[in-house]
Amino acid sequence: MSTPRQVESDLGWALGRVARAHLRTAQTVMGGLPGGPRGYQVLAAVARGEPASQLALARKLGVDRTVMTYLLDEIQAAGLIERRPDPADRRARRVEITEAGGARLCDLERRLRDAEEHLLAPLRPEEQDLLRDLLARLAAVDPDQASACQVAADLTEGDCTA
């Protein structure tokens, strides 16, 4: 029989703790940006040119489309983005970053990277890079690939004491 793991070795606990610390840091860095960290995600996605429409952007970021409309309204009012009719589909709106939005994004990226370096300071630089790479790979996996029912079934078949 194996001994129970300490809570500090639990993946969920560790991810939650790091995620909460990152969120607090991001909220501090993003202070004053419409939408805070979510507004930053919108600016970053729009700056990369993906996806171009409001609806596709909402889907990509996992934001309800009505919430996305209000968020884009706030970001546009701050002069950071523009919405224009899509030439291919006049019903759709293309979201584009403004010059001011690009400058603000650049500043936020620099400040966020500095804050993340502080958060990840216990790790060596190569470990920081590896962690970022591994998390990006995990985040890219479609969460719908495995159904919640199958995950639960797999877990109940395993030995909980291991």
Automatic annotation (TrEMBL):
Entry keyword set: DNA-binding, Transcription, Transcription regulation
Keyword S-adenosyl-L-methionine: no
InterPro entries: HTH_MarR-typ, MarR/SlyA-like, WH-like_DNA-bd_sf, WH_DNA-bd_sf
UniProt KW Lyase keyword: no
Matches recorded under PROSITE patterns: HTH_MARR_2
Residue ranges annotated for the HTH marR-type domain, each copy included: 8-140
Stored PANTHER family: TRANSCRIPTIONAL REGULATOR SLYA (PTHR33164:SF64), TRANSCRIPTIONAL REGULATOR, MARR FAMILY (PTHR33164)
Name of the protein in its database record: MarR family winged helix-turn-helix transcriptional regulator
Organism of derivation: Actinomycetospora aurantiaca
